[in-house]
Amino acid sequence: MGTFDxxxxxxxxxISHYEERRAAMLPVLRLVQERLGAxxxxxxxxxxxxxxxxxxxxxxxxxxxxxxHQQPVGTCHIQLCRNIACALRGAEGCLAAVSERLGIGPGExxxxxxxxxxxxxxxxxxxxxxVAQVNDRYVGPLSPELIETLIRAPESLPAMPLRFRGAVxxxxxxxxxxxxxxxxxxxxxxxxxxxxxxxxxxxxxLAPDQVIAxxxxxxLRGLGGAGFPTGKKWAFVLKDASKPHYLVVNADEGEPGTxxxxxxxxxxxxxLIEGMIIAAYATGCRKAYIYxxxxxxxxxxxxxxxxxxxxxxxxxxxxxxxTSVDLDVVVHRGAGAYICGEESALxxxxxxxxxFPRLRPPYPAISGLFASPTVINNVETLSCVPTIIQKxxxxxxxxxxxxxGGTRLFSVSGHVRKPGLYEASHGVxxxxxxxxxxxxxxxxxLKAVIPGGISAKILRADEIDVRMDFDSLLAAxxxxxxxxVIVMDDTTCMxxxxxxxxxxxxxxxxxxxxxxxxxxxxxxxxxxxxRKGEGRVQxxxxxxxxxxxxxxxxxxxFADAAAWPVQSYIAKFREExxxxxxxxxxxxxxxxx
Amino acid sequence: MxxxxxxxxxxxxxxVTVPEGTTVLQxxxxxxxxxxxxxxxPGLSIAGNCRICLVEIASTPKPQxxxxxxxxxxxxxxxxxxxxxKARQDVLEFLLINHPLDCPVCDQAGECWxxxxxxxxxxxxxxxxxxxxxxxxAIPIGxxxxxxxxxxxxxxxxxRFTDEITKTGEFGIFNRGDHSEIGLHPGKQxxxxxxxxxxxxxxxxxxxxxxxxxxxxxxxxxxxxSVCPGCSRGCNIQIHDNRERDWRPHIAGGERxxxxxxxxxxxxxxxxxxxxxxxxxxxIDHNRLAHVQLKKDGDVHEGTWDxxxxxxxxxxxxxxxxxxxxxxxxxxxxxxxxxxxYVAKRVFGGLGVKQVVFQRPPSGTSDNxxxxxxxxxxxxxxxxxxIAEGAGGLIEKALKKExxxxxxxxxxxxPLAGEEQVASIAKNLELLVFQGTNRNRxxxxxxxxxxSSVYAEKDGTFTNFQGRIQRIRAAxxxxxxxxxxxxxxxxxxxxxxxxxxxxxxxxxxxxxxQREAAFKGLTYHVIxxxxxxxxx
Lengths: 593, 536
Hints:
The complex is a heterodimer. Chain A is of the alpha/beta class. Helix content of chain A is 43%, strand content 13%. By secondary structure, chain B is α/β, with parallel strands linked by helices. Chain B has three domains: 6-97, Ubiquitin-like (UB roll), CATH 3.10.20; 130-284, Alpha-Beta Plaits; 292-533, Rossmann fold, CATH 3.40.50. Chain B has helices spanning 24-30, 82-97, 113-122, 157-165, 197-201, 275-278, 305-321, 338-351, 379-384, 392-399, 414-417, 419-428, 441-445, 485-495, 505-515, 524-527, and strands at 6-11, 14-19, 54-57, 64-65, 76-78, 139-140, 145-147, 171-174, 181-184, 207-209, 221-227, 236-242, 257-262, 292-296, 299-303, 328-333, 355-359, 388-389, 405-409, 431-436, 448-451, 460-463, 468-472, 532-533. In chain B, the strands form six sheets. In chain B, strands 15-14-21-20-19-16-17-18 form an eight-stranded mixed beta sheet. In chain B, strands 2-1-5-3-4 form a five-stranded mixed beta sheet, sandwiched between helices. In chain B, helix 2 (82-97) packs antiparallel against helix 3 (113-122). The two termini of chain B are 26 Å apart. The model of chain B has no long low-confidence stretch (mean pLDDT 96). The interface between A and B is large, with 47 and 47 residues.
């Protein structure tokens, strides 16, 4: 155990950030992996002893999250995204190219130990697709030249620009206002632009209830995807002060097709921090955790810098703005599990366990993190709050449409000429967004669009005049979700599209509830078999039957999300699926040559 | 504490009233409409993961899991609506797609909840046409349990058991999605005092008992309610014997007892039993005293009951005549039933033997869950019958040649007094009688050996450390020529013209409960399946 004792001091420092020892599980495991190259059985035993949990439960965590490995990887770890948005932009070709160039397949390491090649699910850098994570960096869009550079001299890879494309149909940008500023992430930049004035006003002039009332008036809804009214969520928080209250920021961006939170954190982190101060004040929280996805290494660094600066300026810590308000913020990094974006799974994960969604009730507002009242909001949701306080709830509501107040950040990826991030009112139409993104490439026709991340039901080309607010999309039979718009042109094989979706859900099911655990794998196996030309006439009915049997039968809505693509792709493109089964080949890709 | 509020719910058209906080699952059970479940276990936290207990609740669009949903006033539940039945059938199909369906070679077959529920709620036309996922099979995960990860339905009962009950944390569910698999930390073994319970609570063939595995098909088993004699806890058990042994003597080499299983008793052992008790049944079929033995001039030979009881009764009668009974001693045992002890008390009391004591076996380990340090089942009963404790005095006397006759029941004196001492006691005494179930050194040294029945071969009661009187029942006929202790004593009484005669244990208890204050008013009926406390 001598090797591990050298880690003890750092591990002790990690533990000091948490209310319970076990909550330090993910960061302590990351520490072990960073220092020792892999998490061995012996290392698990040390962590177990250190955190006072059974070694079996450490092993559960290590095997649940995809960022932990039990075998060392090469000095250059190339993780190629193989989810739908990247696939639409040529991920398979990149995989083949990298594989051929290195002479290894996915999951393998070159004999010299230099390169490990892996395929991964969505990195949430769809605008950079096809994208790879090379050690800590996102690299994309991958071209033959870029692949050559990353193999030959990974240290000399050029900086990858962010692709914020501007506001669509807005008089002025709101959330993305500062994205184009020089050094936009710096606290000085933020302060020059009225930064932290909304927090100051809230803490010194408004009562918590007044803050909540303003947010309620704003029609702000949860922008992580559920669209739950934020004011209502805050009002639910148990007023009882006998237990500490926690604010948890969901920065575990993971919905394929979505890139927005990474932009906010990278470009304007103080907006988020200010939103957190206001939210914490309104709900009586003195401690906040930001759960950020593990792959976001650079965004985490920027965020931590911003938090450190905010402490220096007195916006965090004790007696903020000379009031009795205190707030401490801890950045907690995830470890690679889509399900941890689900709020109750996120809390489990934050407590050092596998990301298993919890049975509800109790809801987090009553009993969440460490069994205490907890507010969980998405990054973008909280980032709207300073503007709401500054401009007033009503004026914010007017920026939106119907019952969805304000603007939101739309991630547009797939077959468009200008993939990237756009800001628009909730009332923007899908057509306007696609047009703003330059439409489909020359000579192609639009075929289908996923409007709100991979979980959302697909829309056909003739259905894109729909507005993007929560209620309009719901009425159109799909959902706004995380506003990840994935565009597909007429070269897209819908069976392929479904294959990627089914593969994703089979890979990411936490495995807790039987219908989801078994159903996601079953769906994928059937789709995969059809794709191999071995479809049977009854397969489509089986797929629909299985999807229907998963829906509404599980603890969380992951199973429903896995069912929706199956149902909607088949419903809207049934003939194409039937052709595949009948002929054992693709009539879309073959036309393409 | 006030009375809990009552709520009335309708289950399948039938109204039931239950205390607030009751789950729909419990309400359904009460209404006579039980719903199936795998992950739910009344002794463990609620996981809600198997989803087989889905029921339809009026004005709730999605089916709800009965195990977690609290029963609410006015709730209308259907366990048999098309929606509920379909949900259940679908869940079962999901559970079975990757299940190996190796029932013919699975030890759980016949008591498998997948089989049972498939017959009750499944019977669908299977649609699965893909390759099943391979997982480890036939992995010994410790001295007692065998793991088959393919058969596992990931209900997490075993994980919760080792987390919540034993707090040893051996089990985990590793990986995710349909590659999830139950297991132990690499290199670790399932070694705790209660490991066998995970086999009981595993609803499928994933965790099987290495001791029982492949010994006997479960449909050949007979089951008899009893009480574990392994310590003073008195865990409620079932004795499972091979009731087909006359026709299938090849099974397990003809052994009679195949396994013991815990039986629920909320006041004693809940759902559990320890491994020591569970696997401590071997003495029933091994190393038994099958025949009356008599020693003459240093040679041991088999004898008849008539010879043996004749020799004992003659000696006692002679001593009674000669007023030498102060030189007779009786060492009873806390392994004997209340009925045995009562008859002994009457026989030896009636005869005029004053030195009658009971002895416990040497103390063992104990814990905070079930295991008691007193490794016998009925010391409290012996106390309640007013029998003095401790054989030390009599052994001392025998060593000092102050005794002529010593009558020892059940227990070997060697662990208590030492080999040499017991040998010299045997030499000093005119008659050393050993009445017991199994061969031991004392039996070898005794002048007369009377074979008696083990707890599994007789009816009666034990009184556990809490003062709870619990019934045991004969699962087997007496081994060889052995007889229940009380019966041997009655026969001895007859030879000594004492009026102590009983036809069965029930008759003894009927008299005992009239004459012994601590047992006043109790009957076998009152004791029932869960026991009754001694009167204070």
